Amino acid sequence: MKIKRALLSVSDKKDITKLAAFLHENGVEIISTGGTMKAIKDAGIPVTYVSDVTGFPEIMDGRVKTLNPKIHGAILGVRSNPEHMAQMKEHGITPIDLVVVNLYPFKQTIEKPGVTEAEAIENIDIGGPAMVRASAKNFRDVVIITNPERYGKLMDMLKKDGDIDLKTRKSLAMEAFKHTSEYDAMITGYLQKQLEK
Description:
The chain has helices at residues 16-25, 34-42, 50-54, 69-76, 82-90, 106-110, 117-122, 127-137, 151-161, 166-196; strands spanning 5-10, 29-32, 48-49, 98-102, 143-145.
């Protein structure tokens, strides 16, 4: 299988342990954060904590955890570029081939009665969109999944072909950019309403 290393970090945990089990059974190393890591670990699936990859703890109440060159270099490195690969080797960066991320539940948060602005602000995801956009930018080398409904097709394709074809990669990248643009639009709308008060 072409996918050797995956980063799983999701707010919507639907079927994430099923996907993690499939990846583990196929020899894929899994990296994860917080609640996702706990769900994977509780299901008895080996998982590496993102801080063990970055060598840096989660800080600022989890605001900073994946914003690190060991993560973003692993996602953004172009595998066909010898300079990128040399730099990855020099800095001890191992490529990440699959990123499964969906974002903090901002919409659900602002729909709660009596939600404070501070609560809303804390549900603005920063690391998630950065990983989604980085992966989508580098879709030739990194598969990005933002929707749990795609796990089945991903697993079927990997079982059958051992890889994900370019058209599917591009389609998933487009879906990922749509996911982050809709997320930003929600935040924009929320802040607009706050200004109108």
